[in-house]
Amino acid sequence: MSTPIPPVSAPDDFEDGVRLKLVLSRISPVVAPDAFETSVLHALREGGPAATSRPQWLVPILVTMAGLGIAVLVYLSLPTSIEQAPRLASPPAVDTLHIPAALHPPADVPRPTTVAPKRKPRLHGVAGY
Amino acid sequence: MGTESRHDRQSTSVAQGMRALTDEDLLKRFLDGDEAGFVALMRRYKDPITNFAYRFLGNYDEAVDVAQETFVRLYRFGNTFVGDVKFSTWLYTIAANLSKSELKRYRRRNGVQLQDAFGRPGDDETSWDVPDTSYMPDESVDRDHISQAVQKALMSVTPTYREMVVLRDVQQLSYEEIADITKTELGTVKSRINRGRAQLQGLLRDLYTEIFPPQDKR
To answer: In this predicted complex, what is the ipTM?
Structure first.
């Protein structure tokens, strides 16, 4: 005696599922515009992404960043200390340098004294708080 | 004039020949240097991809942008298709990723302030996945009342579920294809589709009564 196979019943939301499928099948399919292919091929010929999706604001930002990058590179390539400065192949020895006598000040001439500029008097009261 | 019509006839016969080829054959022709293969693929898939992007994004212009960008990617990166999935699955994956990026960008651009479950501004992943309840249907695309109501309801479904419901119930793709497109486990795909459908059922209840008026039980 064989056991009967139990019947399989539809789920409770079966009818709702059918209704949903019917409703979704009634929405009209959306089609691409006539100029679709031309736009894609045009964008590809130009070598960029689709013209309509290119963010226009990106270009000035990229140009500015590239400019800043070049400026930083130039700055970093400048010598920052005397050791990094370009040297002559053979620097002249100090004792061989000829210093003209006219550049040596005479020993008996008094050195001019520097005069400090007069300080402005501080304002007091309303004008000077 | 005679030359022109001969040229037209040649183009038509080439187009008919292309129609008989499989997606993978067309891609191979394109990768071998025949641009007609690319154009044929674009003609075959431009409407389904635009339809998918529109039903997901709810904006026709953005949907067309996404669809066009999908084909630009195909042109540039077609050689990365390895054939582990169907060509259409691969193309839908590109379109789905671009659509999700577009949705995130749109929300950021329009300053949509979204809150997560704890009332704090959500991070990128949680904030984008909030349904758009303020959506207004695009009447130039969805001209009839039913299409508008369905699209409005779709936009009120959580984007993660909406993507899968559109792929399954609008684009008629298989569960396996959807799993491949969204890089999601098959079981997760099924449960997300069910949740999405449940959300949609609740939103379309009034429309059901209008379309399927209750029968008199005598």
So the answer is: 0.78
